[in-house]
Structures are given as C-alpha cells and as structure tokens.
Amino acid sequence: MEFEPFKIVPVGYVRKNEELQETFIEIFPEFREAMEGLREGDWVKLILWFHGSDTPERRRVLKVHPHGNPKNPLRGVFATRSPYRPNPVALYTVRVHRIAGNRLYIDWIDAMDETPVVDIKIFVERYDCPNEVTIEEREAHIRGGRMIGEVNVIPRKSEHLDELEEVSPEEYDALILEIGPKTTTLTAEELVELIDAMREAYDALPVEIKDRLRTREGRSP
C-alpha cells in the first residue's frame, strides 16, 4: 500500500530558558489570533513533532523497550510513549500558567528546545476522560450545545426523551455541562432544580437590570 505524504505546518516552537527555569510555547505571529479565548490556568493538550526522531531509521522502529530500559520486554510503539514512531508525534497535557503576548508559559516538559508545535487543543474532560460522562457521545446533541459565558450546555438528543416514560427523572441523564475543562451531567430532576434556581436568581436581579433585559431584541425574560 502506498501512502501519499501530507503537510503539517508548525504553529510555534517549544522554548526553554534553563537559566530562568522557564518553559513556554512561542506562537508564530500569523497564528496569534488562534490564542484568543485561552486563559491563564487553562489545561491544554500540546501536539508536538519530535523532529529529533524524524529519521527514516527511527520511523521504521516498531518495537521498543519501555522507558528505554532493556530489562523491560519489547512492546509495540503504539503501546508506549516512545519518541520512535512511524510519525514522531508527541502529546502532552499541561497547564498554562501565564500568557504574555504570543507566549504561553507552561509546565516543564521533556521536549527539546525548538521542538515544533503542531497544534494546541483545550483540555476537555468529556473527551479526554470519557469514563466520567454517563451520556454517550452519540447521544449528545453537540450542534445543539450553547456556550453561556464559560459554561457549555449540551442537551441529550431529543429522540431519547421517550425513555422518560420508562426511566425515572432522577435516573435519566438529560444534559451535559462543561465548565472549563470539567464535565458533569444533570439528570432530568436536577435540570428542573437548576431551572428553578436560575429563575430565583433572575427574580433577585435589580428592576433596572430586568428592564434593560426586556428591551433587548429577542429577549423575553
């Protein structure tokens, strides 16, 4: 089988200042807008290209001793984090401690200075720790989700609502809530409680705020 090569464009580089003991990602100016929305304290997934392992010989290595220890039995590279792989892609989960211009200051990682950064993705518990979510991905109405501030509200697909006739409201998971990287689900009963709590919060708003909300087009508080 023949494979056609495809192009990967680095969006930045890993930078290490050993004197200051700092590690940061330097984003190229043309990708600066892609940083919008990232905040200090966010957890992100870094996808790097281990250029030091990008040789024909190392790409052909399919089994390694885990952690480079010959005492460990050989394993296929797909079962390890070895830099020797058919495509030398590396994956890290790190916290953004500080953002300064086009720099993302992160935890120390064992990647070399000037390692190309292929991509950066926000850490989402629902995707990266799927065992924590009781609603299966195929049942989540992703396109029907809404971002409200930093909260992502994802309903369950409507074709599953008929299960309420067979499952009690306190057992039926109706909604996924993502707050930053954290994910939780709400049962139908908890959803009703949340709606009641939101109504109470709205009722407690100053009259002036309510009046302004009512005058906004398309709003009917």
From TrEMBL:
Keyword field contains Metal-binding: no
Pfam family, one: TrmO_N
GO molecular function, one term: methyltransferase activity
Gene Ontology biological process: methylation
Keyword S-adenosyl-L-methionine belongs to the record: yes
Ranges of residues in domain TsaA-like: 8-132
InterPro entries: TrmO-like_N, UPF0066_cons_site, YaeB-like, YaeB-like_sf, YaeB_N_sf
Top-level taxon in the UniProt lineage: Archaea
PROSITE patterns registered for this protein in UniProt: TSAA_1, TSAA_2
Keyword annotations: Methyltransferase, S-adenosyl-L-methionine, Transferase
Family: Belongs to the tRNA methyltransferase O family.
This protein's name: tRNA-Thr(GGU) m(6)t(6)A37 methyltransferase TsaA
Organism: Thermococcus pacificus
Origin organism lineage: Archaea, Methanobacteriati, Methanobacteriota, Thermococci, Thermococcales
